């Protein structure tokens, strides 16, 4: 014996079955997608502050008797970079055991004079030497100072198969590493990543001009 349900009851039962079927796959897709993503790339590839050597090599020919104009410009640029990044000592590393070692030693006074003229005090210059027997005829004079710099990476690690792991919608390991490395390289002051700078004083004169223009014109001027 078959029980015949009224039309209204049949329609309600179909609605209940449809709701039950949809409830199994009706979860929030955005929630599932974001929930499957692992750690933030900024955590996986953090930017850290570290002390690194800032170097510049000056190639010295055996017959040189003075620095060229280009080399002096390079030294002044190095001194300006040091003034912006550090107050530490500058090392003048002279080659030892190379064919041009005597010439480099002769030019060291010219190098020191160019550095001091660029604003580096004499007591902040340190002369050292290094073994340059394997450099051949053009062993460089190396200028070095240490500074705090921002750094991220290294990048290029691919520990997993991207094709095999696409079903889980996860960030791959190297994701975001290049962005972090580029940001670290572009930061002029690494301390900006740690603490914001203090506000500059108010320009009272400029503020008076802006207020006066607003009173006369009814709107601030476009500057």
TrEMBL record:
Signal peptide: 1-21
Coiled coil (UniProt feature): none
One Pfam family, short name: Pilus_CpaD
KW Signal (keyword) present: yes
UniProt key word Lipid biosynthesis: no
InterPro entries, A to Z: Pilus_biogenesis_CpaD-related (IPR019027), Pilus_CpaD (IPR013361)
Keywords, comma-separated and alphabetical: Signal
Protein name: Pilus assembly protein CpaD
Source species of the chain: Shinella kummerowiae
Lineage, uppermost ranks: Bacteria, Pseudomonadati, Pseudomonadota, Alphaproteobacteria, Hyphomicrobiales
């Amino acid at each position: 014996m078959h029980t015949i349900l009224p039309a209204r009851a049949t329609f309600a039962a179909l609605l209940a079955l449809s709701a039950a079927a949809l409830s199994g796959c009706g979860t929030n897709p955005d929630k599932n997608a974001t929930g499957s993503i692992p750690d933030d790339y900024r955590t996986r590839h953090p930017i850290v502050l570290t002390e690194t050597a800032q170097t510049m090599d000056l190639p010295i020919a055996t017959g040189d008797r003075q620095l060229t104009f280009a080399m002096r410009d390079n030294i002044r640029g190095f001194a300006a970079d040091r003034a912006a990044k550090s107050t530490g000592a500058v090392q003048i590393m002279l080659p030892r055991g190379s064919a041009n070692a005597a010439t480099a030693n002769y030019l060291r006074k010219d190098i020191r004079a160019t550095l001091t003229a660029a604003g580096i005090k004499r007591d902040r210059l340190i002369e050292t030497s290094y073994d340059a027997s394997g450099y051949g005829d053009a062993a460089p004079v190396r200028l070095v100072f240490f500074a705090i710099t921002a750094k991220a990476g290294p990048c290029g690690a691919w520990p997993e198969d991207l094709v095999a792991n696409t079903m889980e919608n996860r960030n791959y390991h190297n994701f975001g590493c290049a962005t972090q490395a580029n940001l670290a390289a572009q930061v002029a002051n690494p301390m900006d990543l740690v603490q914001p700078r203090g506000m500059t004083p108010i320009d009272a004169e400029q503020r008076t001009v802006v207020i006066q223009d607003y009173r006369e014109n009814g709107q601030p001027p476009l500057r």
